[in-house]
C-alpha cells in the first residue's frame, strides 16, 4: 500500500480532511484528523494494520499492547494478524497500568500499538510498563505520527502516515483572512 492509497483510506472515511477548522483547543488549522473515523470501518482497519505490519518486517511478537482507549482497536487488529495476544493498559489515578489480570511474562516479545502519537507520552508510559515486566520490545507500531519527528523511543518506531498540520491563533489565521468558512468538526 503506497502513501496515496493510505491517505485515501483516511480521506474516504472523513478521518482526514483539508480545509479551515476550529480545533477543540480553539486554534485554527488547515487540517482535521480524527482516527476513530477510519477505525469504525473494520475492513479499512484490517488493510491499514496489514500495511503497518509489513513495514515492521520480521517482527513476531507474543503479545501486542496498546494504551486505552485510542490504541485498543489497532492493538487488537495487529494482535489478530500476528496471531499474538492483544492486551491494553488503561488509566488509573492518572497513569496507565495493566489491569483485568493482563500480564507480560519476562522475556516475552512485545509490540506496542497506538493509533496516533502527538508527543508520544502515552506510548512512553507503555514502554515503561513493558520494561518493568521484563518484556522484550520488538517494535512500536503507530498508524499516524503527528510528532513531526519529535517523538523518539529506545525501540524501532514504524508509522504508516506522518502528518504535521499547521495551526494558528484565530487572530493570526491566514485562512480567516482569505474569508474561508470555518468548520467545527466533531462538535
Ligand atoms: Zn481561521
Give me a quick take on this structure.
This protein has 187 residues and is of the alpha/beta class. Helix content is 30%, strand content 30%.
Structural commentary:
The strands form two sheets. A six-stranded mixed beta sheet has the order 5-4-3-6-7-8, with helices on both faces. Strands 1-2-9 form a three-stranded antiparallel beta sheet. It is 30% helix and 30% strand. It has one domain (3-177): Rossmann fold (3-Layer(aba) Sandwich). With 187 residues, it is an alpha/beta fold. It is globular and about 60 Å long. The mean pLDDT is 95. α3 (42-56) crosses α4 (72-82). A hairpin with a 2-residue loop joins β4 (85-92) and β5. It has six helices and nine strands; from the N terminus they run αββααβαβββαβββα.
What are the key terms here?
single chain, Rossmann fold, 6-stranded mixed beta sheet, alpha/beta, 187 residues, binds zinc ion, 9 strands
Amino acid at each position: 500500500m503506497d502513501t496515496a492509497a493510505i491517505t485515501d483510506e483516511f480521506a474516504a472515511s472523513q478521518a482526514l480532511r483539508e480545509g479551515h477548522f476550529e480545533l477543540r483547543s480553539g486554534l485554527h488549522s488547515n487540517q482535521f484528523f480524527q482516527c476513530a473515523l477510519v477505525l469504525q470501518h473494520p475492513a479499512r482497519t484490517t488493510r491499514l494494520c496489514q500495511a503497518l505490519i509489513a513495514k515492521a518486517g520480521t517482527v513476531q511478537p507474543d503479545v501486542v499492547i496498546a494504551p486505552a482507549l485510542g490504541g485498543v482497536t489497532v492493538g487488537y487488529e495487529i494482535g489478530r494478524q500476528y496471531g499474538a495476544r492483544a492486551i491494553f493498559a488503561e488509566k488509573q489515578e492518572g497513569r496507565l497500568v495493566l489491569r483485568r489480570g493482563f500480564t507480560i511474562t519476562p522475556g516475552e516479545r512485545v509490540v506496542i500499538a497506538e493509533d496516533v502519537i502527538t508527543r508520544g507520552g502515552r506510548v512512553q508510559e507503555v514502554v515503561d510498563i513493558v520494561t518493568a515486566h521484563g518484556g522484550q520490545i520488538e517494535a512500536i507500531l503507530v498508524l499516524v505520527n503527528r510528532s513531526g519527528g519529535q517523538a523518539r523511543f529506545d525501540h524501532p518506531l514504524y508509522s504508516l502516515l506522518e502528518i504535521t498540520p499547521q495551526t494558528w491563533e484565530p487572530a493570526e489565521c491566514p485562512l480567516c483572512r482569505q474569508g474561508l468558512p470555518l468548520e467545527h468538526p466533531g462538535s
